[in-house]
Design a protein that fits this description.
Helix content: 40-55%
Structural class: mainly alpha
Strand content: under 5%
Number of helices: 4
């Protein structure tokens, strides 16, 4: 596990990937309901997160992760 991996930097990365400039990314944000992301866009984010954090996230598992916090914890476990 990477001890330098924290939620603050992760939330900035998510905001950048989603091109959200006026939205505060919270741990409990639901990506579909709170951030308005559709499943195709979310899969694209998953692919980018794999590249950025050098982890493998199967698409079927990734789309089941509905909150930003769930994604953060999943990636944290993979690092």
């Amino acid at each position: 596990m990477n001890k330098n991996f924290d939620f603050e930097q992760f939330s900035v990365a998510i905001a950048d990937l989603l091109q959200l400039t006026d939205t505060k990314i919270e741990y409990e944000c639901n990506v579909y309901d709170d951030l308005g992301i559709d499943s195709l866009s979310w899969v694209k984010v998953g692919i980018k997160l794999q590249e950025v954090y050098k982890v493998e996230i199967p698409t079927a598992e990734f789309i089941e992760l509905e909150t930003v916090g769930e994604v953060f914890e999943y990636i944290k476990e993979q690092m």
